[in-house]
């Protein structure tokens, strides 16, 4: 990565969230609990959806893939964060850092694509209920999910392959993980091309997915307001409230993080934690808290499990 008069850099130092050992110990416990709850919540959502035939619909098909993506998402950064909170020398190799940059970029893109696909699914269900089964066929649902992964990985791959930076002797990253904007201040070479490419990628990805979500909900709101009964409007709104909450949490932090200048400020760290750590944790809660079908499926699964236990004891 480095050339000319600059010595070759083999690793970076992640400053993390705090230099105080006592605070680090508390943060380790906090983020370990968050990570374990994230794994438990998302695995539970996947298990319930795949075992309960009542949830074998396009909406829950997308939700199960969102939960799988959130497992992947949190596992990209949190394990390394936990390791560094326990170590005195918080180092990461250049190769490991670039790998983390790639997967952070890719998983962020996948999350955005899946949320926009789920908005389109709600549009089809509410605005065209009679044609919903034909429009959202199994083949289309699978293609939309695979398309989300392919587009996000290609986008991340292009940004990584385009990197042509010589790193200076300063190895310190003012962050708890490697993200592409955090590497630019460490470069001794011109990063204007990479910065422009990142900005274009972020804007195209954000604008493309945001426009799909926006226009989907414009049509959804228009359709809901035309429903005569109050109960019908309430039921239609309730099917969208969880998705809108998830969209707001993710986009509100991710867009600002990738568009704001890199400074290592507390706000920058908070935004990164919001979309890469907190969002995967709360998504299962958001989609199950007010969802009667998921709650009913959880009860059925719990009853079956308890019945199996009682049968084994007998």
From TrEMBL:
**What is the gene name?**
LOC122225634
Task: Please identify the protein, giving its name as recorded.
Answer: Olfactory receptor
The UniProt record lists the G-protein coupled receptors family 1 profile domain at: 41-287
Query: Which segments of the protein form a coiled coil according to its record?
Result: none
Give me the segments passing through the membrane: 25-48, 98-123, 144-163, 196-218, 239-260, 272-289
One GO cellular-component annotation of the UniProt record comes to:
plasma membrane
InterPro entries on file:
GPCR_Rhodpsn, GPCR_Rhodpsn_7TM, Olfact_rcpt
Q: Which UniProt keywords apply?
A: Cell membrane, G-protein coupled receptor, Membrane, Olfaction, Receptor, Sensory transduction, Transducer, Transmembrane, Transmembrane helix
Question: Which species is the source of this protein?
Answer: Panthera leo
For this protein, the record's Gene3D superfamilies field holds: Rhodopsin 7-helix transmembrane proteins
